[in-house]
Amino acid sequence: MFNLLVAPFVLAGEPAQYPADLDAAHSWAYPGDVARTLVALSRDDRAWGRPWHVPAVSDLSVRAITARLAELAGLADHQLIAMSALALHNAALVDPITSGVPEMQYLSQRPFLMDGSRVTETFGVTPTPLDAVLTETVESFHRAVV
């Protein structure tokens, strides 16, 4: 969601809207870490019968993550706005990607923190550093617009 609704707009110097409490702490997962976790779990019998959580890149709020993205991109200013329930409802009516977001709002309207330390301790999967993830996001955006 962040890479669809926030990053491209902030990096283009436009206001971004996000359907969440912008200041609520949230566990963020990097897709590469998700993949590495799934591979590690699929190759080890210790994974059977237990829940596992991907180690979080960060537990910062979307506002703090956005500010760090802008800083790494060298942007002096950015604007992040909480998307209203009505705007989210309307977007969900016309966009298949957004259509499932309203029912998942309980994950975005209050702190949502996951503990992935067991994956790190058991399988050695460590989270990618936040700045590396955000730098990759900035570089991907610049490659896409060039």
Explain what the structure shows.
The structure is a single chain. This protein has a single domain, classed as UDP-galactose 4-epimerase, domain 1 (Alpha-Beta Complex), CATH 3.90.25. It contains seven helices and two strands; from the N terminus they run ααβααβααα. It has a two-stranded parallel ribbon with strand order 1-2. The longest helix has 16 residues. The chain is globular, with a radius of gyration of 17 Å. It starts with a helix and ends with a helix.
What shape does the CA trace take? globular
SSE class: mainly alpha
The CATH architecture would be: Alpha-Beta Complex
Largest sheet: 2 strands, parallel
Number of helices: 7
H and E string: HHEHHEHHH
Level of helix content? 40-55%
Alpha-carbon distance between the termini?
23 Å
Provide the spatial order of strands within the biggest beta sheet.
1-2
Assigned CATH class: Alpha Beta
In total, how many beta strands?
2
Low-confidence stretches: none
* Percent strand: under 5%
The average pLDDT score comes to 94
Rounded radius of gyration (Å): 17 Å
CATH topology: UDP-galactose 4-epimerase, domain 1
Count of individual domains: 1
Short key terms for the protein model shown above:
NAD(P)-bd_dom_sf, two-stranded parallel sheet, mainly alpha, 7 helices, UDP-galactose 4-epimerase, domain 1, single chain, 2 strands, 146 residues
Break the fold down into its secondary structure elements and pairings.
Layout: H1 2-5, H2 7-11, E1 16-18, H3 31-42, H4 62-72, E2 80-82, H5 85-94, H6 117-123, H7 130-145
Parallel strand pairs: 1-2
